Amino acid sequence: MKTAITELFGIQHPIIQGGMHYVGFAEMAAAVSNAGGLGIITGLTQRTPELLAREIARCRDMTDKPFGVNLTFLPSFTAPPYPEYIAAIREGGVKAVETAGRSPEQYMPALKAAGIKVIHKCTSVRHSLKAEKIGCDAVSVDGFECGGHPGEDDIPNMILLPRAAEELTIPFVASGGMADARSLVAALAMGAAGMNMGTRFVATVEAPVHPNVKKALVEANELDTRLVMRALRNTERVLKNKGVDELLEIERDRGAALKIEDIHDKVAGVYPKVMIDGDMDAGAWSCGMVVGLIHDIPTVKELIDRIMAEAEQIIRQRLTGFLDGTLETRPARAVA
Ligand SMILES: Cc1cc2nc3c(=O)[nH]c(=O)nc-3n(C[C@H](O)[C@H](O)[C@H](O)COP(=O)(O)O)c2cc1C
Fold first, then answer.
1. Pocket of ligand 1 contains residue 28 by CB under 6 Å
2. In the chain, what percentage of residues exceed pLDDT 90?
3. What is the pTM of this model?
4. Cα 41 from chain centre
5. So what's the architecture of 4-208 in CATH?
């Protein structure tokens, strides 16, 4: 399949693995890139630019295909040394960066000077237009369903994607709620040139996380995510667990007066406990509603091959069948 996104990043399939804290290590990114998608190393999981440089080198040892790095611009008092992270990306020869969080505007000259393609993750049409204006090459349009930070507008992808298509001239991928061939075909129908997946990629053989995490994803359903930190205007969609229940209790008690200090131990330092130690009740970690569509733990290649094969089947048989008048009574089937 050829789309503006496969052409932009020089990849075989229009599938991107979004940056994921404590998941997006070299093993994850290389597995996705080797399977024909665009794997992404999560920049800030590496505590220093030097460590990121090492992670990029490790990924390069595992794949000769293009891969990218995620740079998340956090609202924090002590900003990470972003220029040094960008230098590590440039010197590592990485040609794709996924930016997220705050606008990457001040870093665009450095990224563009290094010949890096920038895809900015946006949860609204207005932010997508801003990304286009400041020179981003593409946008990852992240709907309300998404794992992680859906913003504060609460617009699901069924509306957000066609709205993005109405306004944008640069290509975009659909992000949030994407799991399988049906997601990909629907995203393409709504104007996207591919899809970005987060949660789905965590439940794969190669995802370098504790087996408890993968098991929890297979066992959970679409009702099991919660929104936290709404009162702080830093909303995050996470998987429900004991720590999250306690967090929500505190949020209910404090109401609009909630301060980050009130919930600090339930949202900070949680990722290593969950992803490395497998402590599933530690607190808030990102997970999308798409968890309801995750029923197995395939290899990344099996997952991507299945998506591409079934997408072709949906387009050639189911959709063309409607036009040809061949009666199709079965719904597009569930993943294997
Ligand atoms: C465990 C996990 C950690 C994540 N960490 C980050 C992150 O550090 N930076 C970022 O930009 N997005 C992060 N995300 C969001 C993903 O990149 C992606 O946008 C999102 O998962 C898409 O929604 P989906 O989970 O429904 O596929 C994370 C998502 C998950 C599931």
1. no
2. 95
3. 0.97
4. 11
5. Alpha-Beta Barrel (3.20)
How many whole angstroms from 40 Cα to the centroid of ligand 1? 11
CA angle 40, 189, 310 (to 5 degrees): 70
Task: Give the 3-state DSSP-derived string for 213-253, with helices as H, strands as E and coil as C.
Answer: HHHHHHHCCCCCEEEECHHHCCCEEEECCHHHHHHHHHHHH
Contact 143, 155 (CB under 8 A): yes
8-state DSSP, 335: P
Cβ of 271 less than 6 Å from ligand 1: no
Q: Which residues pair with 16 in a beta bridge?
A: 38, 196
Assess whether the C-beta atom of 142 lies below 6 angstroms from ligand 1: yes
**274 CA to centre of ligand 1 in angstroms:** 15
Q: Which residues pair with 72 in a beta bridge?
A: 100
pLDDT at position 76 is 72
Name the residue of 98, 199, 210 whose CB sits within 8 Å of the most ligand 1 atoms, as the mutation to test its pocket: 199
Please write the tens of the pLDDT for every residue from 259-291: 999 999 999 999 999 999 999 999 999 999 999
Whole-number Å distance, alpha carbon 213 to ligand 1 midpoint, is 15
The answer to whether residues 287 and 225 touch, using CB atoms and an 8 Å cutoff, is yes
> Which tokens in the block code for residue 294?
């995750």
Cα separation, 293 vs 179, whole angstroms: 7
Q: Is the CB of 209 under 6 A from ligand 1?
A: no
Task: Break the chain into its structural domains and give their ranges.
Answer: 4-208, 211-289
- Residues near 331 by Cβ (< 8 Å), separated by ≥ 6? none
b/e map of 314-332 (b: 16 or more CB within 10 Å)? bbeebeeeeeeeeeeeeeb
Which atom from ligand 1 is nearest to the alpha carbon of 200?
Answer: 27
pLDDT at position 268 is: 94
3 state DSSP class of 8: helix
CB 243 within 8 A of CB 282: yes
Tell me the pLDDT tens digit for each residue of 180-225.
999 999 999 999 999 999 999 999 999 999 999 999 999 999 999 9
